[in-house]
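User: Here's a chain of 202 residues. Predict its fold as tokens.
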Amino acid sequence: MMPAARESLLDATYTALLRRPWSAVRMVDVAAAAGVSRQTLYNEFGSKDGLARALVRREADGYLAGVERALATHGDAGERLASAAEWTVSAARQNVLVRAMLTGCWGESLPVPSLASVSSGSAVPAQRRADGPLPSPSDFVALVRDRAVAAVTAPGVGKGDTAEWARACEVVVRLALSCVAAPPGEGGVAELVRGAVPRQVR
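Assistant: Prediction complete.
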């Protein structure tokens, strides 16, 4: 299948999920909304659970790509970390799957892909990567922390040693996740992050 058609199917699935609980999302409706046959949908994803895994994986990848963009912004280390924290809170606010992945709170209306029970040899080639383990909330902390450390210890960005930055970045990531659960006032995320970054490593 063409990548554009796969994306259309995933887009249609996400739209359907915003309108009704996952248990009420029907494969035939997703296929119709994407303009393909139901058989094409099954050929691509194998099952409804396979479709769920692919959708969740795509949203996870999109969130992490946004983290990379935020960390690549101009400015000092503190500004980059503030940008990544703001993106985390914004992404979780706007995307129900990102929020579920970051908090571990899926709720009854969302798909909870049974990733642990999937073998690595999926019968659907395009599905194999989506069948792999999805990061847990603690895995996301480590993934974002490691990306943040790499960004802020780049030449000309931050000073101080890597161990200090690793601690500071983990605090910032966990602070951002706390803001997902209990959002601060307007502009509050960036201010919290700036206050959490030790001056000696800025």
